[in-house]
Structures are given as C-alpha cells and as structure tokens.
Amino acid sequence: MGYILVCDDERSICTMLQIAFQNQGHRVETVTGGEQACRKIDSNLYDVVVTDVRMPVVTGMDVLQHARKVSPDTMVIIITAVDDSTAPIEALNAGAFYYIRKGPKLLEDVMTAANLAMDRSQLRQQNAAFKRDAALHNSLDNIIGESEPMRRLKQTIRTIAATASTVIISGESGTGKELVARAIHTCSPRSGDPFVSVNCGAFPETLLESELFGYVKGAFTGANSNKRGLFELANSGSIFLDEIGEMTLPMQVKLLRVLQERSVRPVGGGQEMPVDVRVIAATNRNLSQMVQEGQFREDLYYRLSVIPVEVPPLRARGEDVVLLANYFLKKFTVQMGRDVLRISPESLRTMKGYDWPGNVRVLENTIERAVAMSNEEELQIELPNSVPSSIPLAAGSGATGIALPQEGIDLERYIADVEKSLLQSALRRSNGVQTRAAELLHLSYRSFRHMMKKYDLN
Question: Which residues are 177's β-sheet partners?
Fold first, then answer.
C-alpha cells in the first residue's frame, strides 16, 4: 500500500479522498495549503501527491516543482476546477503524472490515476535497482545533492570523464571521494572495463607493492604461485588509489615509474607488463604542503594532479542534508524492515544547522543508528557528540563530553579538525565579518588571521 499526501484548499475534497484512499489500505495525510504541502514533502517519503492547482500564495504548480526537486520519485497528480486548455500541457511538461478536471467522476479518476502512479513508481524503483546492481553502484546518480557545489561537481565529472588524464580527488574524510571516482569511470568510455579500488593506507609498503604490481612465484616467503597485480587487473579500465597521501616515499618512486612508462614489473619478476589504465587518486591530506615538507614527491604530485577535483564538505552544502537524510532513511527502513515514515521537522532543522564533522559518512551512520533504535513512525535524530560552537570552553573545565574511541585517536589531526570547524562556524555566524568571528572565538584579529591562513580558509 502507498503513502499519499492530499492538498486542496477545499476541506471537503481532502476528506473525501482521505476516506477513499484509507478504505483501500493506503496511508494518507491531508493539508489545505501549498506551503504546508511543501513542508510535508521535505520530511516525508510520499509515493503520490494529489494537489489542487488554484491555491493562495503557494500554488499546485509550486508544490509540483518542489516535489520534483526534493523527492523526484514521488508521483504528482494535479486536480483543478478551472477550464484551461493550456494548463494540462504545462503541468505534464513540468513533470506531473496526471492532470484531472474536477467533476462528477473526480473520485473515480483520482483513485485510478493514483493506483497507476503507484504501479509506475514501483516499476521505476525496481528498474532503478536493477540498473544500480548492473552498474555496481558506480553511477553518477549515486552522488546525491542539488546544491550549487554539487551541480558544479557533477558537471566537472561529465566534462573530464571522456579524457584519459590522471585525476586527483581531494576532500575531507567521509565526503564520498570513491563515489566521485566511480562516477568518473562510469561516465567514461572505459565504463565497460574494470574499476579497481585500493586503499593505499591499508597496506604496509611491501604488501602494497605486491598488491599493485603482482608477484612471481618465489619472490618472497609464501609466494607459492604467480599473482597478477591490481594494475594488470584494471587493464583497459580505471584504478582508484585512495589515501594516496599515506604512500611511503619509496613506493611513490615506483608508482611514478608506472605512470611514466605505462608498464608494471611484478615483484621478483624481470619482465615489464604494459598496462592501459586510467589512474584516479584521492586524499584527505594537503599534498602541496606535504611536498613542501618533503613527505610527498613533487614530480609525482604534478603527475597525479593533471585534473584536480575538490569534493565539498557537507557543511558547505547544507541544503543537501534533507535529500541525503531521506535517501538514507529509505535505504535503512527497507534493509531493516522498519515502518519509519519520516524524520521529525525539528530533527531536520537541527541537522541542517549542524557542521557534520565526518561529513556524509557520519550522516549515514547517524540515520542508520536512529532507524535501528526507533520504534516510532517519526524519527528523532540524536546528533553525534561534538564540540558545540555555541558553548565556549572555559579554562580548566575539561572536555568530559568527548569520549576516546576504543581504537585511539590521532590527537593532532583531531584538534586541527576542531579548530578548523570552529573557525568556519564563527565565520558563518558572523556572515564573514572576520573581526566579529575573532571576537566569538575570544581571539585577537592577528591570531584569527594566522589560523585562517593555516587552514587555507577564505
């Protein structure tokens, strides 16, 4: 059964349709204004929206456009009492599923259209699932976001995908750098060939070399047979080198040679193996600074950064939080078989104002945890523990609200992330007025400017 929203400024129409849909077993909500409908669509996952056209302030066409933007899978049925020959064409071109004139057969027509819409929606979801499975979740559609930074990112992916140039993707942890790499591959002429991913920080140097380039029997203890490396497995396709900044200097020399010669030599082998592979690398570290500090080879840096791509942090695209939250809500309610219908409006407002250290990965984990722990139809979100930007830390007060993870923590990086996050929060709260931001942080303007430069903040 479906989840339906009815919007009409005539209460009698809402009541009639609500009773009819409920008699068929559907869940139904009704509102008498377009503004209310848009708010409902922001926080709920409707299968069908039935809306009148002529309403004060926010019209049915406004509701249609909002639904298409916020919830593109929702089918919208337009109803009207106005005899306008051009209105049906306008509505259908704008994405409406059906356009119905009010009359004696209104109830019958709406019920028929709604059932067709839900059948269409179900088929669309099944087809989308099949396509996602076939593409191994490598589609550009998996990069969720309609904010301006994300539109620019998607356009960049479309532009560079057709080339064979090396790409370096930078961005904070949890922003979805691998999704971007997969999208570049999927949109490229290499999409029918392998996409191979490896986390350079997950292997010690010797093991990483054998993983990337392969080895021959007897190359080292335990090498009882020949093994092809990931570069060879990715031949004609793409290889994604995640966390490239964690690669040791000796390993960087070997990777540079592969990029220059377009061939690999297995560990213990004497023969070069030619490979045709597009290299896409990613890092959450500042490689240019690492070059200056002697931690990363300058020649490799320039070889990798032929096309640099920056993935924006979630706090820079707060309008995408609702889209992502609803996407993860649907994902986990299906996986867990829960009946959660929506995220509470209060939670959505709080989430949109949150800085999201850890970015999309933390948002996903937050929704998954909330769905797993909830027995209600409306989800209340408890945000992860963080340093609140609104509560100054008094000297000697301690940080008792911050728990040390079981696996430990990189203290210097953690403190740097907190400092940067607080600087950005102060700038947002002061609308970019740096003197005011410095006052909020109890810093001198000179110290504030020094920290701005330190974290490359504009």
Answer: none
Tokens 């400017």 correspond to what residue?
Answer: 449
Residues β-bridged to residue 168:
281, 308
How are beta strands 227-228 and 214-215 bridged, if at all?
A: antiparallel
Residue 60 exposure: Cα atoms within 13 Å on the Cβ side: 30
d(CA 61, CA 73): 17
E-only strand ranges, 35-164? 48-52, 75-80, 98-101
The answer to whether domain 140-310 has CATH 3.40.50.300 is yes
Domain 3-133: give its CATH code: 3.40.50.2300
Query: Is 363 in contact with 356 (CB distance < 8 Å)?
Result: yes
Residue 425 to residue 455: CA distance in whole angstroms: 14
Annotate 111-125 with three-state secondary structure.
HHHHHHHHHHHHHHH
One fold for 140-310 and 314-379: no
The domain made up of 314-379 is a member of CATH 3.10.105.10: no
Beta-carbon contacts of residue 94 (< 8 Å; ≥ 6 apart): 61, 64, 65, 68
Q: 98-101 and 75-80 as β-strands: parallel, antiparallel, unpaired?
A: parallel
Domain borders along the chain are 3-133, 140-310, 314-379, 411-454
pLDDT (tens, 9 = 90+) of the chain, 458 residues, equals: 788 999 999 999 999 999 999 999 998 999 999 999 998 888 777 889 999 998 988 999 999 999 888 888 789 999 988 877 787 888 888 889 999 998 889 999 999 999 999 888 767 655 644 444 454 444 577 788 889 999 999 999 989 998 889 999 999 988 999 999 999 998 888 888 888 999 998 888 888 999 999 888 788 888 777 788 899 888 889 999 999 999 999 999 999 999 999 999 888 887 788 889 999 999 998 999 999 999 999 999 999 999 999 999 998 888 899 999 999 999 898 888 887 778 999 899 889 888 888 899 999 999 998 888 888 888 888 887 644 433 344 333 344 445 565 556 677 777 787 888 888 888 878 777 888 888 888 887 777 887 888 888 86
